[in-house]
Amino acid sequence: MQANISTYLAKKTEAAPLAVFRIFFGLMMFASIVRFWANGWIEKLYLEPDFHFKYYGFEWVQPLGELTYLLFVVCALSALMIAIGYRYRIFIVLFFLSFTYIELMDKTTYLNHYYFISCLAFLLLLLPANVYYAVDAKLGKAKTSYYVPAWTIDSIKILLCIVYFYAGLAKLNSDWLVEAMPLKIWLPSKYDLPLLGDVLQQEWLHYAFSWSGAVYDLAIPFLLLWRKTRWFGFVLVVLFHLLTRALFPIGMFPYIMIVSALIFFDPKFHHKILNGFSKLIGFSKIAYDNVLKSTVFTNSKRHVQRYLVLLFLLFQLVFPWRYLAYSNELFWTEEGYRFSWRVMLMEKAGYAQFKVVDTISKKQFYVDNSDFLSPLQEKQMSTQPDFILEYAHFLGEHFKVQGHKNLAVYVESYVALNGRLSQPYIDPTTNLLEEKDSFKQKDFILPFNDNIKGL
Questions:
Q1: Coil, strand, or helix at residue 298?
Q2: CA distance 149 to 156
Q3: 302: left (phi over 0), alpha (psi -120 to 50) or beta
Q4: How far lies 96's CA from each of 35, 75, 84, 260, 328, in Å?
């Protein structure tokens, strides 16, 4: 077995797929950041709110005021430099740090595909994506090579397979397969779509979408990995993501997944793409390749990089299963839900009324959440226990500064999950100021009066 591993690690392959992936990644990220800015979301999400929800352990990450715009400029510029492969090592680090910092500024904006981008950027930190068809290679700022170790390209394939397959495993639950939830809620709301509006009202279609979505996510890694089914799999990727883009407001994510799937094709396919780029910029790729074909990529640090990539992929395999450490229903408590490739699996609506009490005089008053939170923040807060706890501590600190003493903060909250009737969510007798956020199970969450079967 060790001999087989050594043989695989020594295997070389053409660098074209890695170069194409780098180019498309940079261009898609640049377009995403420009779109985010153009829609006014920097101001709306990061500058206007007075309070921002923080990830546990990253409370120190704060919006930078007007300098937040500069942060987005750095991120966008880095994405462009990644695409052309100029000073790649510097700009991939800058992109990873700036993008991840943006992602961590407010937990309200959490999306699986933001996490996916951070993961891809971290992986690209460890890969020689600038040794071929890059400005660095042309200027001699990188060890130019026509070939790279096969594992560098395979590592991207493995990450994509994990994302798809784990998303499919997450759909193997009774709400998704037996009740067609939450698609039974979401699809009928698209009644105004041309051609599709009427058929989206049909219950049979809700089940068809639910089951086909699960089968798609579970099967697509194998379809893309096997050469004979690769084109069929890629057509499914395009159709699936274009359909989800038409039905749901998920931004650039479908296009990112489409271009990412190109990594599964052989080098000849990617050379055709690079030939197209070469014609656009007036670059003689044939002459460039003839010189490089005799060179092989070498790196004295390749052993360290291999181990880091291996550890990263092992982490991605194990970390999504952390929810098994909690005894409560995952969809109800969301303990271990984030960062586990669970995509669009539930619809939650909630109500949270906070009460501030003087424990000595027993005087009390209720909080108007709109005084402190944006509509999006309030919506997210009302259905997620770590949000509720953090907000309660913010309220306690806010009113303490105003001169109130002997404070306790309670919440009366109700949550409706996947079309069920609202149920009490947080124990109304728990003084939330006495609870601390941690990775421990949150016992102040009331039991879920139902059972969702599945993984």
A1: coil
A2: 13
A3: alpha
A4: 19, 8, 17, 17, 34
pLDDT in tens, 319-377: 999 999 999 999 999 999 999 999 889 999 999 999 999 999 989 999 999 999 999 99
Rg of the chain on CA atoms, in Å: 25
**AA letter at 182:** P
Cα–Cα dist 354/428, whole Å? 9
Rounded distance between C-alpha atoms, residue 61 and residue 114, angstroms: 16
User: How long, in residues, is the chain?
Assistant: 455
Distance CA 135, CA 278 (A): 13
Spatial separation of the C-alpha atoms in residues 398 and 19, rounded to whole Å: 51
Q: From the CB of residue 262, how many other CB atoms can be counted at a distance below 10 Å?
A: 17
Q: Which two tokens stand for residue 18?
A: 């890695």
- Read off φ and ψ for residue 356, nearest 5 degrees: -105, 130
- Phi then psi for residue 83, to 5 deg, are -60, -45
Q: Each residue of 422-441: pLDDT tens digit?
A: 999 999 999 999 999 999 99
The reply to whether the predicted model has a pTM over 0.90 is yes
DSSP conformation class of 37? H
